[in-house]
Write a structure and sequence with these properties.
Elements (H helix, E strand, L loop, with lengths): L2 H6 L6 H8 L3 H15 L4 E11 L28 H13 L4 E6 L8 H14 L4 E5 L5 H10 L3 E3 L18 H13 L3 E3 L2 E3 L5 H12 L7 E6 L16 H14 L4 E4 L8 H9 L4 E4 L2 E2 L2 E2 L3 H11 L2 E2 L14
Parallel strand pairs: 1-2, 1-9, 1-12, 2-3, 3-4, 4-5, 6-7, 7-8, 8-9
Antiparallel strand pairs: 10-11
Length: 333
């Protein structure tokens, strides 16, 4: 039985299994991942998501990669929670640009039951009525909060593990690994799609990358979306001097994630602006089938819709439809 079939049968996938996949000769690994992708996914389609920072900066956490942490001097302007109509306007523009999913991000350590959360509920209801998949990423979430978001129409919740459990304390001290896993459990128990992945290039080892994939692939259910982020070093953060991750490292992560979580959307996320089309094409060949589109990912730059439209046309890719809408053409906004 292949590793992909083992994963689909909910049979335990060991660290040794994942290590063996990750360390295959690169061309063999990419070929294997492409075959798994072809077997379990609709090839030629890429899910296009748009990310809106609905509350920016001023976060109390100490994530070493994050320019939104209040304790770091990163020149990020702090903005309070957006108004509902402003978010809906941005979501409508994202849909016109070809996005089928909108992810709303708030720089909070945790969600609190207050007027801001009530406003987020209205945002979720409004975006859902646009026939888009609506996702949020707002820090830790309780069971009751997850249920309220589900009732409002939330389709997915993003809560990344970031790295392995062993390396986690080198990056963050204000939230534990178990805190992250508990939020993922709360999201899953509420019937919300789970989006969880991590970041490479933070000084971690290959074993740490494999450890993160091991945890994700052995959750009770695989995440429906797995973002693979390349660190974008930001001046003022503790990780500002980290070297750029190579495309070869990204390919190993994407291909391994595709093989061990064959039904997941593997998202080529942060770091895409630094990747030429040729490198992104390799990532799609290795099993990536989701991107963030639009000129900004929360606070860091990202390719514009027009650039992605040109790339899709060159590579013969089409945007994947949302779960409840017909296919749309990727256009400029």
């Amino acid at each position: 039985m292949s590793v992909a079939d083992t994963a689909l049968n909910k049979t335990f996938v060991s660290l040794e299994d994942i290590l063996a996949v990750y360390r295959k000769p690169l061309l063999e690994l990419i070929t294997d991942a492409a075959n798994v992708h072809r077997k379990f996914q609709q090839t030629g389609e890429v899910q296009v998501s748009s990310l809106i920072s609905i509350k920016t900066g001023g976060c109390s956490e100490d994530c070493g990669y994050c320019p939104q942490a209040a304790r770091y001097n990163t020149n990020v302007n702090v903005h309070k929670l957006m108004q509902v109509d402003e978010v809906l306007e941005k979501a409508s523009k994202a849909k016109a640009g070809g996005a089928s999913r909108v992810c709303m991000g708030a720089a909070w350590r945790e969600v609190r039951d207050n007027r801001d959360f009530d406003k987020v509920i209205e945002m979720v209801k409004g975006v859902s009525q646009l026939d888009m998949e609506v996702c949020c990423t707002m820090g830790m979430l309780t069971d009751s909060q997850a249920k309220k978001l589900k009732e409002a129409g939330l389709y997915a919740y993003n809560h990344n593990l970031d790295t392995s459990e062993d390396y986690y304390d080198e990056i963050i001290s204000t939230r534990t690994y178990d805190d992250r896993l508990e939020t993922i459990d709360n999201v899953r128990n509420a019937g919300i799609s789970v989006c969880s992945g991590g970041i490479i290039g933070m000084g971690e080892s290959d074993e740490d990358r494999i450890g993160m994939l091991f945890t994700l692939s052995n959750l009770p259910e695989h995440p429906e979306s797995v973002p693979v982020n390349a660190l974008v070093p930001v001046e003022g953060t503790p990780l500002s001097e980290q070297p750029r991750v190579s495309v070869w490292e990204m390919l190993r992560m994407i291909a391994t994630a595709r093989i061990i979580m064959p039904n997941a959307m593997i998202r080529l996320s942060a770091g895409r602006l630094q990747m030429p089309v040729s490198e992104q094409a390799l990532c799609f060949m290795a099993g990536a089938n989701s991107i963030f589109a639009g000129d900004k990912l929360l606070t860091t730059a990202n390719p514009a819709f027009a650039d992605d439209k040109a790339m899709f046309e060159l590579l013969g890719l089409k945007p994947r439809a949302a779960y409840k809408e017909e296919k749309v053409a990727l256009t400029t906004s």
